[in-house]
Task: structure prediction
Amino acid sequence: MRRDAQLFAVIANWPVKRIHHWITLLQARAIENQAYVVGVNRTGTDPKYNYNGHSLIVNPHGEILADAGTGEGVISAEADLEILQAWRAEFPALQDMRTGEAWRPAKC
Result:
């Protein structure tokens, strides 16, 4: 079931000029899914853009636990599943999620 995911991995190519969007959206994904998010972003250049990394690990409250900075590297952080489960019990927002046949988009 989708609401049981505890960690999401997001792999991307966010350029330097929009890196603040990358960081903000990873934090939002963690908060709205009440899960840890690992974001892996590109470094280097191509003919149009420069990429400065900022691969991140974000906790379910949107707090950045690890940031790789602007270069290549390896990051790690501890994902405490007991804290995650306690937060989901305290704030059970995922129980409101509709999936499959129960969800129908509004007709325009």
